[in-house]
């Protein structure tokens, strides 16, 4: 199993998968894994978005990117990717239960 600490200062592709309205949309953000106060964080250069925390339990989702997939991921130079499913928050959601990314997939 890989750990985010192994990827410090390396490129990581985060693949956001949105399954709203029964349609699957993918958005790929490539950024750098940086040290943070509590573990590691993901920073998208240029830093137009604040870095967001990479939760340790997400590390089990880290996958090496095969060469043949790099073009699909926008010719990413990242060696690893993590896949994150995005869901709409319920109206009564406790935001403390979620990890904000600052990324708007609808933008």
UniProtKB/TrEMBL annotation:
It comes from the Bacteria. This is Uncharacterized protein. It comes from Hymenobacter setariae.
